[in-house]
Design goal:
The protein has 201 residues and is of the alpha+beta class. It is built from six helices and nine strands, in the order βββαβββαβααββαα. It has helices at residues 40-51, 103-106, 124-138, 148-157, 184-193, 195-199; strands at residues 2-7, 14-25, 30-39, 57-60, 85-92, 95-101, 116-119, 165-168, 177-180. Strands 1, 2, 3, 4, 5, 6 and 8 form a seven-stranded antiparallel β-sheet that branches. It has a two-stranded antiparallel sheet with strand order 7-9. A hairpin with a 6-residue loop joins strand 1 (2-7) and strand 2.
Length: 201
């Protein structure tokens, strides 16, 4: 279980809740997915801080230490430039469970100009299936299902997308990664290059 902490330097106050799963990107410190629960007022306050891109909301790992950013400081939890949707459930009076997620990364086919997406699954095979399905939906180049592993190898060969920071006990996110959306011209070039291999697939 991870702890989410917001500390006010002015009042020396501390607001905290707990997270059972999250997907973050270190380069911007932005939340792609965050499941948190705790006292309703704390969850509400932390959500406002994250969506408002305010400083000093951090995540604490199982060891009790802050998860560090690339600059070795505590990783800030922010919305970044993403649009976040929320799902809220009152567990019992005074206790709330809230999920924040970026629909652009989880359902990229709903936005025409998306450049990245998150593929995930409990196994590597599930992540590959999701990646293939997304590329097949977004592109105009017809793909055969039997090309799934080939597509994964081509897409990850020179992949410069950042690796996500994933935490928690949700098996569904065990194999997560950011991937760039390939362009039609790139796909066509790869198919032509590997046509002899794909004929036997």
């Amino acid at each position: 279980m991870h702890k989410i902490v917001q500390e006010s330097m002015e009042s020396r106050g501390r607001v905290q809740a707990y997270s059972d799963s999250f997907i973050l990107t270190e380069s911007f410190g932005s939340v792609k997915y965050l499941s948190m629960f705790g006292a309703s007022i704390a969850v509400k306050s932390l959500t406002a801080q994250i969506i408002g891109n305010r400083d000093s909301v951090h995540i604490v790992g199982d060891s009790g230490r802050f998860i560090l950013s690339g600059g070795c400081g505590p990783l800030e939890l922010t919305r970044g430039t993403e649009h976040l949707r929320t799902y809220t459930r009152n567990v019992r009076p005074g206790v709330t469970h809230k999920i924040l997620y970026s629909p652009d990364y989880f359902v990229p086919w709903k936005k025409s100009d998306v450049r990245e997406f998150i593929t995930f699954g409990p196994t590597d095979e599930d992540a590959r299936k999701r990646a293939f399905s997304i590329v097949d939906k977004l592109g105009n180049v017809p793909l055969k299902t039997s090309w799934r592993d080939w597509l994964w190898e081509r897409m990850t060969l020179d992949d410069m997308a950042p690796m996500p920071i994933v935490g928690g006990d949700v098996p569904e996110f065990a194999n997560s990664r950011f991937m760039f959306v390939p362009g039609d011209a790139w796909l066509e070039a790869c198919i032509r290059e590997d046509l002899e291999i794909l004929k036997t697939a």
